[in-house]
């Protein structure tokens, strides 16, 4: 018998209709999404804390102006001419368009819109299996657990896609149906937005296993359609300006990229630094063990796979947070009546739910006016700027005023702003493809206790004309000791060293 947990419930004799059910569900989903948007607007500058925010906008602007897609590095002098592709080109163009329209306010507002859409979709799919109040509360918690990855980078455009992709594939498997073909254009879009599109292949494979576990090879025709869908996934992802190179680039980080060991977001999960995430993981594990919920071996493997990604690289915590509850919600709603959406539809609306259902149109109109007004006010009034820890605003103004020239030796976190301002970098955030073959390891070793001779070698090898360092850069004492170098500028976040004349 085919399970239909995700389908629209049959109206019960208790008095409220399918329309009332959907209206209440929709308003709860909108409420949690708007609440998340409000918190993001309140702390909008937090979305521009990453040094990569700068160069993503610049790459998008350059693609728009040149109408060509880069194939070699032109932004650094240490890797100039090396193969490099803008595999996230579409997301970069979207950010560039937002920046062209309204500066960093536009970039921030676009980012907030994508996150809000993600939260709404997550609540919507969860509320298909869990009653609206439970879906509201769970989405509220999950939306704050993903805060560490919420920044103005192309990844944010993929969040709504990965929620839809996962929910629809596992729903098709649960219903013992073929995967929806309309998901393939969505995958193509994903492949042009961010390199994580290869996770789409893996998610589809897990959903296929879930179907296999349900049908036990009794429906070979259906299984064949799933296999065909799986074969089409890599084919449609080739529909991008770089073809197979976009797929191959995704493996450069997964296998042997030397930069991984030095970048915070690629470090293993550390409970001491992420106590909220640790609490969520322990609570989830406790709930699964105590409740003895039956989820089947394919979904158990899916849970373990996402847990492995989280523990290996903390940047992938969002996959666990978003996808595991999404995939397990159907079984939880089916096995526990007190959280079940179907059980809820057979009962009576409470006072709040009756109010929401009867005033649906007026509430929806008010929400629409509120959203449009908030966006307009934010765009015209707010003056959001990237973090001063990445902008080096005063230092770059000093460099321009004093005509500092030659190659700059820069701290990693200033690479993005240098690219944005048209200054070729020593190193920057494009380490997934560049600054390899020992360069990253050697550069990072210059900050170690014995790194002074290596630093001197690099200054000579690359004909460094000046240095732009963050105030917490461990190489600053070495520069202070170097013969022929002096501090020319410093502020709260930056220090500039120049050669003695």
Automatic annotation (TrEMBL):
What residues form the membrane-spanning segments?
A: 26-48, 104-126, 133-150, 181-209, 221-239, 275-295, 316-339, 359-381
| Keyword annotations | Membrane, Transmembrane, Transmembrane helix
Keyword presence, Iron: no
Source superkingdom: Bacteria
Query: Which named protein is this?
Result: 4-amino-4-deoxy-L-arabinose transferase-like glycosyltransferase
């Amino acid at each position: 018998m085919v399970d239909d947990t995700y389908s629209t419930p049959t109206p019960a004799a208790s008095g409220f209709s399918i329309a009332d059910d959907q209206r209440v569900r929709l308003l709860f989903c909108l409420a949690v999404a708007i609440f998340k948007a409000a918190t993001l607007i309140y702390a909008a500058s937090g979305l521009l804390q990453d040094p990569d925010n700068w160069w993503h906008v610049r790459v998008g602007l350059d693609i728009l102006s040149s109408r060509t897609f880069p194939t070699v590095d032109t932004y650094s002098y240490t890797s100039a001419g090396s193969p490099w592709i803008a595999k996230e080109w579409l997301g970069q163009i979207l950010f560039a368009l937002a920046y062209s329209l309204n500066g960093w306010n536009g970039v921030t507002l676009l980012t907030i819109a994508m996150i809000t859409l993600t939260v709404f979709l997550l609540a919507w799919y969860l509320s298909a299996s869990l009653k609206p109040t439970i879906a509201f509360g769970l989405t509220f918690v999950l939306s704050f657990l993903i805060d560490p990855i919420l920044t103005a980078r192309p990844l944010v455009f993929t969040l709504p896609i990965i929620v839809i992709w996962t929910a629809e594939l596992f729903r098709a498997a649960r219903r013992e149906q073929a995967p929806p073909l309309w998901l393939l254009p969505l995958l193509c879009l994903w492949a042009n937005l961010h390199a994580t599109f290869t996770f789409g292949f893996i998610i589809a494979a897990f959903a296929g296993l879930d179907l296999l576990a349900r049908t036990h090879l009794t429906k070979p025709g259906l299984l064949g359609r799933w296999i065909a869908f799986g074969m089409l996934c890599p084919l449609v992802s080739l529909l991008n300006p770089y073809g197979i190179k976009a797929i191959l680039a995704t493996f450069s980080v997964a296998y042997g990229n030397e930069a991984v060991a030095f970048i915070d977001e690629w470090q293993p999960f550390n409970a001491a630094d992420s106590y909220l995430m640790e609490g969520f993981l322990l609570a989830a594990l406790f709930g699964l063990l105590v409740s003895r919920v039956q989820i089947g071996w394919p979904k158990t493997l899916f849970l373990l796979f996402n847990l492995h990604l989280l523990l290996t690289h903390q940047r992938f915590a969002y996959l666990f947070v978003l996808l595991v509850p999404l995939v397990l919600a159907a079984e939880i709603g089916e096995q526990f009546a007190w959280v079940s959406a179907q059980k809820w539809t057979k009962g009576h609306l409470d006072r709040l739910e009756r109010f929401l259902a009867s005033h649906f149109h007026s509430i929806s109109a008010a929400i629409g006016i509120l959203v449009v007004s908030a966006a307009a006010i934010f765009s015209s009034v707010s003056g959001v700027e990237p973090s001063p820890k990445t902008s080096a605003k005063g230092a770059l103004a000093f460099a321009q005023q004093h005509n500092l020239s030659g190659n700059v030796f820069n701290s990693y976190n200033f690479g993005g702003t240098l690219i944005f301002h048209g200054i070729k970098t020593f190193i920057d955030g494009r380490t997934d493809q560049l600054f390899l073959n020992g360069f990253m390891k050697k550069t990072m070793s210059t900050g170690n206790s014995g790194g002074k001779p290596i630093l001197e070698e690099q200054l000579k090898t690359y004909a460094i004309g000046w240095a732009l360092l963050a105030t917490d850069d461990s190489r600053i004492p070495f520069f202070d000791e170097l013969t022929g170098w002096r501090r020319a500028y410093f502020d709260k976040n930056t220090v500039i060293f120049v050669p003695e004349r």
